[in-house]
Amino acid sequence: MAGYRDLLRTSGVARIIAAQLTARFPNGMTSLAILLHVENQTGSYGAAGLVLAAASLGQAVSGPVTSRWMGIWGIRRVLTLTTAVCALALLAMALIPMGIPGYMVFGLLAGLSTPPVQSAARTIYPKLVNARQLTALFSLDASLQEIIWILAPVLITLVATQVGTVPGLLLIVTIMVLGGAWFILSPEVGRVRIPRSRRAFGRVLGKPVVLLATVIGFLLIGACAAVEAAVVATFDHGGLEAGLVLAVFSVGSLAGGLAFGHIPIGPWAMARRLTVVAVGLTAAVFFVNEISAATPWWVAACLIVAGVGVAPALAVMFAMTSASVKFSETAEAYGWIGTGQLLGAALGSSIAGFLIDGVGQAGAYAAAGGFAIVGALVAITFVRGFPDLRGRDASPIPDTEPVPVIT
Questions:
Q1: Quick one: which of 381, 189, 366, 194 has its CA closest to 278?
Q2: Together in a domain, 174 and 217
Q3: In 3D, which of 338, 306, 308 has the Cα closest to residue 214?
Q4: Do residue 105 and residue 57 come from a single domain?
């Protein structure tokens, strides 16, 4: 922990971490708030699902695009524009009565304009610390983001059910604007200029490391989404049990990231961490029965084991991407990784839903374990594609250009 204390004492690090976590806090609230609000207005969960699908599609499409824009127009301009448009779209959904098509249009607009704060923050990190500290900073970031997924769903559910869905959406807009302003106005954001990428849009996916990170992010977050659906289906009758079990999953991830963030990252690091996730999720299948539904301790124990590998795996993903692309391409690379994660979440929750209806909750846990096992197998099969960062600088490759010489 002494290493993390030294890291947070570095000028600007604590401020940027706190600001970006605040700006991203609505990410853990928006989907649930839209679902509850549209269902409340239309009386249909099917309609709410369509609106949520439109928002998720927009977010998946926009990630690489808005991230790349930051190298063209600057971080502050892009974040200011996207924050303003996203906030206005959510305000319209909250305050203007409309039919399902209208909600879908504004949901799509909110998704398309989701501020690329995550890509911006992870692009700025290499400029804040020295090479020795960068891997630990990525690990700390991956760990602390679990705070969002522990607190945000609980907060928005409490506000939406006890006060109303309109105040819930207004709360999201308030946090988005204030947190976004804090991050945008931070001095470190103003000091970083992302060079314009000279390569065509999407070419960064041709780099094996970026493609591997996108595929593994798809599988890892697919596993997490499937297990979330499984837990809700298992304990939905028991009051707070589902929320507490999912909180334990996130706490395990937070603890794993903090405990293992200092370990040097070698080519086998991803495979080992995903194997831990796969073991925990697969073990949960054997404890889903009538006894576990009444006493969730065994499922929680399995998920805390699985959670220990999640944040460390994400840290490997971010560090290996940073070390393998030019600085001008880092924001777009993180945008593609984010899109892969969103698609994984959509597929994971969909497959889990069908299996819950078809074979029961055990099928959803099996799906989660299956995603994680495939992720571990991908990491093992393509281990030579992972960079060895032990004793190596994890900073992005500097951008260079030809210099004219008079002869």
A1: 366
A2: no
A3: 338
A4: yes
Mark whether 207 and 295 lie in a shared domain.
yes
Q: What is the DSSP string of 285-317?
A: HTT-SHHHHH-THHHHHHHHHHHHHHHHHHHHH
Q: Do 63 and 33 fall into the same domain? A: yes
**CATH number of the domain that residue 21 is part of:** 1.20.1250.20
- Eight-state DSSP code of residue 28: G
pLDDT at 403 over 50: no
Give the separation between CA 11 and CA 315, rounded to whole angstroms.
Answer: 22
Residues 125 and 221 in one domain: no
Residues 63-77 as b or e (16 or more Cβ within 10 Å = b): bbebbbbbbeebbbe
129 vs 342: CA distance, rounded Å: 29
Question: Is position 145 within any domain?
Answer: no
What's the mean pLDDT in 214-227? 90
Based on the fold, state whether residues 270 and 121 are members of the same structural domain.
no
Range of the domain at 58: 6-129+151-195
Structure letter (DSSP) for residue 326: B
Q: Identify the band that residue 71 occupies on the pLDDT scale cut at 50, 70 and 90.
A: confident
Is residue 143 in some structural domain? no
Q: How many Cα atoms sit within 13 Å of 89 on the Cβ side?
A: 27
| pLDDT at 226 > cutoff 60 | yes
In this predicted structure, the answer to whether residue 106 has a pLDDT above a threshold of 80 is yes
Q: Which residue has the tokens 């704060």?
A: 117
* Residue 252 token pair: 């395990």
Look at residue 148 in the predicted model and tell me its pLDDT. 83
Q: What does the pLDDT average to over 21-27? A: 92
Q: Are residues 13 and 78 both part of a single domain? A: yes
Question: How do residues 165-211 score in pLDDT, each as one tens digit?
Answer: 899 999 999 999 999 999 999 998 888 887 777 777 878 888 889 99
Split into its structural domains, the chain has a count of: 2
Q: How many CB atoms lie within 10 A of CB 94?
A: 21
| Cα gap 171→159, rounded to integer Å | 9
